[in-house]
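Reviewers of the previous submission asked for a worked example of the structure-prediction workflow described in the proposal, so we include one complete record here. The input consisted solely of the amino acid sequence. No template or homolog information was supplied to the procedure at any stage.
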Amino acid sequence: MPATIIVGTQWGDEGKGRFTDLFAKEMHLVVRYQGGHNAGHTLVVDGETFALQLIPSGVLYSHITPVIGNGVVVDPKVLLDEVSMLEERGVDCSKLKVSGNAHLILPYHQLIDRVTERHLGKNALGTTKRGIGPAYADKAARVGIRVQDLYDPKMFREKLTLVLKDKAPMLAKVYNQLSPTVDEIADVYLNDLAPRLEPYVADTVNLVHEALEAGQHVLFEGAQATFLDLDHGTYPFVTSSNPIAGGAGPGAGVGPRHIDRVIGVAKAYVTRVGAGPFPTELFDETGAAIVERGHEFGTNTGRQRRPGWFDAVMLRHAVRLNSLSELAITKLDVLDAFDEVKVCVAYEVDGKRLRHLPDNQSVLHRVTPVYETFPGWGGDLSGATEPGDLPVRVHDYVAFLQDQVGVPIRLLGVGPGRDQYVQLRA
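From that input alone, the workflow returned the following structure tokens.
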């Protein structure tokens, strides 16, 4: 039962989408198991750039069935707009499947996200304000509305009435905001969005298991990344779901026995968006150069990412949390221009050296990174296709990273294009 998970190992934006696209050549299904349209994937295929938000990266292959699992929160308007965008560009989306158990993002979720983030002021979490957190909160509180409810109008209205009974007064009295009414929401969701979404709605758990039982290859795709995980990330500066590999189970309806490969994706440096601790963050000209060379701006939001050196302490923890079988390193080419490259191998705090992530986040805010420094390779990697095309210094750098994190590095990204990678021999 050949199933693979691809997971980000840092704070997101590692380039998971392009490697999901790469591995999709060998797959039958590509399944997104959590997150919402706050997580963008950018793919460059034959010189064309595709920015995806909800639809799994495998949609660009005609043989793939792209699946949005029950663990995803779905804004149907965003999803349908994305389908239209892809089809206008010649991408067939007819095989797309969306779980009827996926929860809906509704207008009041987006409104609540905006006003609460503004209300937090300097303590704001840096959310995308797209309603993802409030939708997951309603799911946990058991007042969420699911995709399947769109096809029972009576049930949809009853649930909506119950939810707005609490949310509308809260928005009005606490935030001085007027919530959309039941009729306003129902008119859009039931009369416009539901009929257009219906051809894609399916029993995705059954679909995934039928594929596995037939011996077909299934790829599970996480959004965001390990250190944005609700339980294991730098809380509260995290997302509202579980991007780690274990999240594929509840998010897609599979058990661990089906998974035989877990691929972690990491940049050759680190970035994060929004607030939160960042031990290796760079505030100097080197950081600015990484942002410029790496085009480090959010796919969906356009926000500039915070840059820093590669953090092996984080990666060791990510290896443990995800049971990684291997790693893919992206954006190695971004470091081409630097005379030296640094890797954080440990933290120092209160006179102690730590090789593993501290379990107390207050400590993480105070650590000082301990670096190993390597000479730059002084060459353009973007044309490399074979290991022999890489300078010796690149091989030394990659071998050091592999030794530090304890799992094999199989792939190196050397540019944004679909074919700009080097596969390292085992």
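The mean pLDDT is 91. We consider this example representative of the routine output the project will generate in years two and three.
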